[in-house]
Each structure stands twice: as structure tokens, then as C-alpha cells.
């Protein structure tokens, strides 16, 4: 490390992507000094903690299939072989689909691509679903209200048994503790990065530089506690990334959207207890993570709390923001009452009268093709645009980032699969557009 720098690497953002990246960089570059920073008091407290903490390999693009499948397999390895309990529960994912949805070309292509990638799935018909899932309403014939709400009936179920849910805090803790075992530098929390330190390269010590004709490089960060110089800056800041890239003239090509989770308990309603304890899909004898045919409404089982987490992947009608705002941190009760609840009770009448006992909100960072960005330019290594699936892609993204840092042509993902290190870059991108987004 040059004497001009305080650290070899500073990693900004200690969510799941940031801590995983810090770990792989330290493990594979043991002589490097790496500082991990976050604005909150501890790791994994921002959007990682606000997510649904679900993992699936059921994507339409082979790129996302690879990123998620290898990451999920590594999480299984952490829990089953290393012995760090992530509360990883393979409850599965279940898409409930109408006949028109199921026979749509995009769904058929999705299933074909999963077969080509050995992503296992199973198809259930309406009769099977009705028999298996307590209280499921599959048909809205004669229901004027359902017609007014544009609700589609349930004709098929597309189920993936390798998918599931986990505890995002425990996953962050695993990578953080492994990083700390290797790193001589203690992570720093409660430090907010306000700007990137862009300087002329080389510096001429002339007032006003860097000028347009000079080469430039990011040589660190400016925080609320002072400047920190580093040879490489890693940005794992998700929906806040544009706030740091814009002032130096770099285009992050992402945008943010607010997402909610509402918590409902099942113990005081027999119908919800029966739904939670649905049998036949998985060894846990619970309902899978379930996506309804209409409005983007979904729910996941929460076995420890004996309840459900309810969310919605809305499309047209709710705004994108270029940068995540403070409003993202505040859940909106009216969103559940007016948008989610009416849809939920039509498909599952057992939710009638159920009200949230808790809620939270956070931000997703979306890329144009719903495939993450991992690229290295101007002294910055950027990991962004995971499009709501950062937890399930984090391990693969971190391994790719390490390969880019080291200047390697290929990155080796868990299980030995090798991919081009620049596959997720902005300019040498080697990906397919993703169509299955929640």
C-alpha cells in the first residue's frame, strides 16, 4: 500500500452485499488492509433487514439463475456443513397462476430455461391446489367485486422446492464474523459517507484541480467524521449509490422503489393456523412463499412467530425514485388496508379481519434489466442494482467483485462454476434481461 493511503480498501455499506464482499476481499487478499463502514450502529440494519429475506433460484434469465443457485447452495453449506444456523427453511416458492398467465409465452419460456439450467420445479393444477391449500379461493365466477378489482382466478401453481426463507441478520453475522477473524482492521459503524474523494491522478497541487484534462481517480471517502483515504473504494450502498456517484459524474443506471412488509400472527385465527400448517409442499409442512395471480401481492410463512409476512411487488402506479428518500423508512398502514388486504382476502378468506401487528419499509435498487451491476472504474468497485434480490445473489456478486479487484478474467462461484469477471459490468455486460421480478 502506498504511504498516501490509510487503507488499501474501504467498503462502504455493511448490508449483506457489503459484508460478503469485505469477507472475500480479505480472504483472497490477506495482505490488504480493509475498512468496513456503515452509517448505522451495526451491520445489516438497513435494507437487508427490511427485506422479505427469501431466496429463490426460479428466475427466467440464466444469469440470475446462476447467481442465485450458487449463492443458495453456499448458504446451505454454511448451515449444514459449517454449522452456522441461518434459519434457512426450504419452504419453497409457489406462483399461483391463471390459465392465461400459465400459457403465456413468457411463462413457458421461463419454465424451459429452468429445465435447461436444471432448476427443479413442479406444476400443480387447480384441483390439486384446492385440495392441498386450506381455504384457497380459486374461482371468482359471478364475483362482481373481483371483476372490478381485475383479479384473475387460480388455475395452476408453479412450485420450486429448492427455494425458501432465512434470517438475514444471521447471514450478515456469518460473513461479518468471518471477515473480522481475518481482518486486522475493526469495522466502523455510525459513520456516514457524504462524498467520494475524487482527485487528479497524478496530483499537481494546483488550486481548482481536478481539471477536465486531468486523469482522475477516487482516492477515498469524505465522512461526517473526516476523510478516509483508500486505494480502492467499494460501494455496496444499494438504493443510495446514485447519491455518491452523481456528484463525481458517474452514471449508476439504477433507480429505487419503496417496498413494505406487514406482519400478521396466525395463532388467534384457526383458518390462518391451518393455512400456515399446509402440508404436502415441503418437509416443514408449511405453506410456501406464495405469489398471488393479481396485483403483485405475496406472503411468506414465519414459523418462529407463527404467522405471515405480507408484501406487494407493485408495478405501475407507485413511483420510482432516483435516490432512496427518508420516506422509505416509514411503512404506510393505508397501503396494507387499501391495496394489499382487499386482494389477499379474495384469494384467502381466512385473512378476513386480520390486521398487522408490525410493519417496516425499505428500498429496492433496480437495474434496467433486473440483473445486478458489479464493475470497477476510476478507483471504485460498485455492486448495485440487485433489483430486490440482493440476499439471494450476494455470495456470487461478492466473488465476482473479488475477481475484478484482483484483475482476474474469471470469477469462480460456489461449486466451481467459472464466469467472466466482467459479466455484470456496465460496458462489457454479458447477461439476459430478467422477466420474473417480485
A few lines on this structure:
This protein is α+β, with helices and mostly antiparallel strands and 438 residues long.
> Number of folding domains?
2
Number of strands: 21
**CATH-level-2 architecture of the largest domain:** 3-Layer(bba) Sandwich
Nearest-integer average pLDDT: 96
Decide which structural class fits the backbone: alpha+beta
Task: Give the helix tally.
Answer: 12
Q: What percent strand? A: 25-35%
Distance between the termini: 43 Å
| Name of the level-1 CATH class of the largest domain | Alpha Beta
Say what the CATH topology of the largest domain is: FAD/NAD(P)-binding domain
The rough form would be described as elongated
Q: What portion of residues is helical?
A: 25-40%
**What can be said about the biggest beta sheet?**
9 strands, mixed
What does this entry look like structurally?
With 438 residues, the chain is of the alpha+beta class. The protein has two domains: 7-51 and 170-253 and 369-420, FAD/NAD(P)-binding domain (3-Layer(bba) Sandwich), CATH 3.50.50.60; 93-160 and 255-366, 2-Layer Sandwich (D-Amino Acid Oxidase, Chain A, domain 2). The chain contains twelve helices and 21 strands. It has helices at residues 16-28, 47-50, 62-82, 99-102, 105-116, 126-132, 144-148, 168-182, 241-245, 270-276, 333-347, 390-406, and strands at 7-12, 34-38, 54-55, 93-97, 122-125, 156-160, 164-165, 188-189, 193-200, 216-223, 226-235, 255-265, 289-291, 297-302, 307-312, 320-321, 358-366, 373-377, 380-384, 410-412, 418-420. Strands 4, 5, 6, 12, 13, 14, 15, 16 and 17 form a nine-stranded mixed sheet that branches. Strands 1, 2, 8, 9, 10, 11, 18 and 19 form an eight-stranded mixed sheet that branches. It has a two-stranded antiparallel sheet with strand order 3-7. Helix 1 (16-28) packs parallel to helix 8, helix 1 runs parallel beside helix 12 (390-406) and helix 3 crosses helix 12 (390-406). The two termini are 43 Å apart. The relative contact order is 0.19. The model has no long low-confidence stretch (mean pLDDT 96).
Amino acid at each position: 500500500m502506498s504511504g498516501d493511503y490509510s487503507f488499501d480498501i474501504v467498503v462502504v455499506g455493511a448490508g449483506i452485499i457489503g459484508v460478503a464482499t469485505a469477507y472475500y476481499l480479505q480472504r483472497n487478499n490477506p495482505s490488504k488492509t480493509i475498512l468496513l463502514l456503515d452509517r448505522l450502529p451495526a451491520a445489516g440494519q438497513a435494507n437487508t433487514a427490511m427485506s422479505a429475506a427469501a431466496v429463490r433460484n426460479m428466475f427466467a434469465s440464466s444469469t440470475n439463475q446462476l447467481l442465485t443457485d450458487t449463492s443458495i447452495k453456499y448458504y446451505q453449506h454454511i448451515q449444514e456443513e459449517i454449522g452456522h444456523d441461518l434459519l434457512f427453511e426450504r419452504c419453497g416458492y409457489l406462483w399461483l397462476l391463471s390459465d392465461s398467465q400459465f400459457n403465456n409465452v413468457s411463462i413457458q419460456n421461463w419454465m424451459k430455461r429452468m429445465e435447461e439450467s436444471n432448476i427443479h420445479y413442479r406444476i400443480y393444477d387447480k384441483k390439486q391446489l384446492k385440495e392441498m391449500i386450506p381455504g384457497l379461493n380459486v374461482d371468482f365466477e359471478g364475483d362482481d367485486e373481483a371483476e372490478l378489482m381485475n383479479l384473475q382466478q387460480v388455475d395452476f401453481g408453479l412450485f420450486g422446492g429448492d427455494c425458501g426463507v432465512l434470517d438475514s441478520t444471521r447471514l450478515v453475522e456469518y460473513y461479518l464474523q468471518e471477515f473480522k477473524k481475518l481482518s486486522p482492521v475493526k469495522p466502523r459503524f455510525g459513520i456516514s459517507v457524504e462524498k467520494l474523494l475524487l482527485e487528479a491522478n497524478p496530483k499537481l497541487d494546483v488550486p481548482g484541480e481536478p481539471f477536465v484534462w486531468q486523469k482522475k481517480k477516487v482516492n477515498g471517502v469524505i465522512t461526517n467524521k473526516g476523510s478516509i483515504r483508500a486505494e480502492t473504494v467499494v460501494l455496496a450502498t444499494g438504493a443510495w449509490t446514485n447519491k455518491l456517484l452523481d456528484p463525481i459524474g458517474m452514471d449508476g443506471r439504477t433507480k429505487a422503489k419503496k417496498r413494505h412488509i406487514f406482519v400478521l400472527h396466525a395463532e388467534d385465527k384457526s383458518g390462518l393456523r391451518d393455512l400456515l400448517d399446509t402440508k404436502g409442499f415441503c418437509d416443514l409442512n408449511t405453506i410456501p412463499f406464495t405469489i398471488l395471480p393479481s396485483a403483485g401481492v405475496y406472503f411468506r410463512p414465519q414459523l418462529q412467530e407463527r404467522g405471515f409476512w405480507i408484501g406487494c411487488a407493485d408495478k405501475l402506479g407507485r413511483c420510482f425514485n432516483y435516490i432512496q428518500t427518508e420516506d422509505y423508512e416509514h411503512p404506510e398502514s393505508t397501503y396494507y388496508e387499501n391495496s394489499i388486504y382487499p386482494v389477499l382476502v379474495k384469494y384467502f378468506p381466512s385473512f378476513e379481519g386480520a390486521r398487522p401487528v408490525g410493519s417496516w419499509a425499505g428500498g429496492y435498487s433496480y437495474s434496467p434489466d433486473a440483473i445486478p451491476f458489479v464493475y470497477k472504474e476510476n478507483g471504485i468497485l460498485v455492486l448495485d442494482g440487485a433489483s430486490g434480490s440482493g440476499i439471494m445473489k450476494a455470495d456470487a456478486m461478492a466473488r465476482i467483485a473479488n475477481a475484478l479487484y484482483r484483475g482476474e478474467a474469471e470469477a469462480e462461484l460456489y461449486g466451481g462454476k467459472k464466469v467472466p469477471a466482467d459479466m455484470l459490468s456496465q460496458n462489457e455486460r454479458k447477461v439476459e434481461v430478467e422477466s420474473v421480478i417480485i
